[in-house]
Structure formats: structure tokens, C-alpha cells
Amino acid sequence: MSGVEMRELESFLVLAQELHFGRAGERLYVSQSRVSQLLRSLESRIGAPLVERTSRRVRLTPLGEKFLADLRPAYDALRATVDEARAVARGRGGELRIGFQGSVDDSLSRAIARFGDRYPDCAVDIVEIPLSDPFGPLRRQEVDCAVVLLPVAEDDLVLGPVFSRQPQTLAVSVRHPFAARDSLSAEELAGCRLIGIDGGAPEYWRRAQAPGLTPGGLPVPAGPSVNTLQEGLSLAAADRGAMLLCRSTADHQGRRGSLTFVPVQGLPDSELGLVRHRLRPTAQAEAFAAAVGEATGTAARRPARLAAGQPRTGAARLSP
After folding, report:
1. InterPro entries, per this entry (predicted)?
2. Cβ-proximal residues to 201 (8 Å cutoff; 6+ apart), any chain
3. DSSP label at 248?
């Protein structure tokens, strides 16, 4: 992509439609020779012809056909982002729909306030999404961005910023044998049934929230599965299983009479991340990502992809 100019891509897209250098030049308000020059420059950067030229016809090469199919949605998304940014700059604002799991925590509240101060004409809608479907609402365009528990290893999603790193606790009934403990080791999770997550979330994600093995490789019994945080807390209170939560969630919930929260040593910390759709970016979502980074002092990043079938130990829950 190094050095590629937008004008070269635009010229290729128009030529692919017209299949005629003269008509492409008319649409672009440049000469026919300029279209040819821009195309040659693009082909030079790519390293192979995209168009076959004869005295009688112009047609795309097989590589040109593939390049067109890959380029068109990305170019359209980029144009839409620019158009929306112009709308925000002109005060039309639009709407930002933010999905979240559980409850909005302090860092997210600061980011929303910062975004609202910066773009007062943009309406902000906060939408709760279930634990069991962290990525679905974004893919169905029900939200523009979503705050979800890590890990995130989806090719069609952009992750960042990552924030709200918190130690793990175990929510158990006051009747559970662990309830009187000051802390637990991660290996002791082999002695309780962990409440898992229902739904269509990827296996690697569900395993991160309720690992099937301790860090040392001991099997962890599987408890019932739930769709929401409140369902999990209710089952834990009924002594149907135990649920891993980050510390700030435990602090927010308090003792709750029928529940207690025991720190777990030796598990990876919980983290949250903001995700947007790679092919359907919006100016509002990108501006909100910047506000989250500023409010939390973090920068956008994408973790290494998980290998197929690679187990993930550790768990996370959203800070309310």
C-alpha cells in the first residue's frame, strides 16, 4: 500500500466501469493520457497488469477483476467515513450507538462525556448487549461500536483502545466452601463448577470467560451457562455454580447478602476493548474511539490472532 494515491485508485475504479480511457477521463475531468498514466503508476506499484489494452477493447485481467472486487467495498467505506466526518464537522452530528456488556463503568462514562462535549450535535444511544453475543449486534449494524470483554480475534472487527484491566474474583454463594476464604489460587478452580456463557460467541471467547483448565492443566468442572451477567449472579447466589468477575464488578455488586466475592490469584487480568466493524466504519465511532483512548490513557491495539483450537486460560467480566 506504500505510496498508493487515492487518484490512482479512483482512476482504476472508473476505468473498470467504463472500459474506455476516453470516457473515464471525461468522468474524472482529466485527459485520456492522464488516466493511462495513473493506471500505469498503480500497476507499477502492484507489480502486474490490471488492464489489458488493445486497439479495439479494454478489459480487466484476472488480477484486475480480483483487485476490483476487493477494492470496491473498502473504497466505499472510506468515502462514507470521510462524508460522515464532514457532516460532524458541519454540525449535523448524526447518531452514535454504543453497545456494552453489563453496565457502563467510570472510564466509559468519562469517554461518553468527553465525546458529548466535543460533538454536542451527535446523539448518543447506549445499548446493552448480552454476554452471549458480544459481536453479533455490531455485525447486524444494531450498534456502531461495542465495549466487550477480551480476547477479540475477529478478522472483520477492529479492536482498540483496550482498557479497564482488572484482577479476577470468584462470585460464590455464602454457603459455598470457598465463601470464608480470603483468596484462592487459580488451581483451586478445579474444585468448583464455573458458570459459562451461552449463545453464539466464538469458542475461544467463551473459554476465556470460563476456562476449562487451570493454568497448571487441571480440569475445571463446567457449570450452567447464561446469557447475561445478572443470570450468572443469580445462579451463583443459588449455589448452582461460581462465576469469574473482575474486581471492580465485585466491588460494585457488594456482598449482596447471598453472594461473596473471593480474589483469585494466578489468572490473567480481565480487560475490555472497544470494537468497530472493519468494513463499515463511521466517523462517530472513530471519534468515540479517540475519546475512549483519551479518557483511559490507552491507545488502540489488536492482539495476536489465536491459533485454531488454541486453548485460552483466564477469564474476564465487564466492570459495571
Report:
1. LysR_HTH_N (IPR000847), LysR_subst-bd (IPR005119), WH-like_DNA-bd_sf (IPR036388), WH_DNA-bd_sf (IPR036390)
2. 131, 132, 133, 134, 135
3. H
Chain Cα centroid distance, residue 92: 26
Lookup: cell for 17: 466501469
* Domain assignment of residue 315, yes or no: no
| Residues belonging to the chain | 320
pLDDT in tens, 58-111: 899 999 999 999 988 888 777 777 766 666 665 556 789 999 886 677 888 899
Nearest partner of 140 among 213, 50, 200, judged by Cα: 200
The owner of cell 487515492 is 6
Contact 118, 146 (CB under 8 A): no
In terms of phi and psi (left: phi > 0; alpha: psi -120 to 50; beta: otherwise), the region of 239 is left
Judgement on whether residues 173 and 143 belong to the same structural domain of the protein? no
Terminal alpha carbon distance of the chain: 41
pTM of the model: 0.64
C-alpha Rg value of the chain to the nearest Å? 25
In a domain, 313, yes or no: no
> 147 has which bridge partners?
100, 274
CATH number at residue 184: 3.40.190.10
Residues 203 and 175 in one domain: yes
The residue from 50, 69, 89 where one domain ends is 89
H helix or E strand, kind and range, residue 139: helix 136-139
